[in-house]
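Section 3.1: Structural characterization of target chains.
Under the original work plan, the team committed to producing a structural model for every single-chain target entering the pipeline before any wet-lab resources were allocated. The record below documents one such target. The sequence was received from the expression subgroup and is listed exactly as submitted; it comprises 168 residues.
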Amino acid sequence: MKKCAYCLKRSKCPYKKGKKHFCSKEHKTLYFENDIKILKKQIQIEFNRMITEGQPCAYCGKYFEKMDCSHVLSRGSCDHLRFDFLNVLPMDSRCHRWFWHDSPLEAMEWFKAKYPERYDYLLFAKNQFREWTAEELKKIREDVKNRNIKGLIRFYKEYELYLHKQKR
């Protein structure tokens, strides 16, 4: 008798994926369709491809066959901005590694000078922490598929309100 990873009931669990056991095929499907960690991993691949395909390097301006999706504020420190269009830049591997990661202060100064509006938005958005939900991640997947850039600016509405209040 194993415990189903979806319903948590002990029963014969004929379906298995990795170390997870499931009492039905439906429970296995439901579990993986709504697992935040798995959704983030799958969507990150699709998002990175959308950001980099056919784009020049944001720093040197050259086109390369393989590009990196460089996060301005890292996924580790700002996971809530991992799929935010304003938090990423297409970069070739050399610029991403040798400029962005090895000279972070210089890179941030360059970013601030080249993209001042994005910089201001990110200063606001980094403090707008919100946990990911399966529903929100599924919407992001659709926005990536449809290349809906506005839908990929996570705190757009909040930022617009913030700017409106600042003008008063």
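The longest strand covers residues 67-71.
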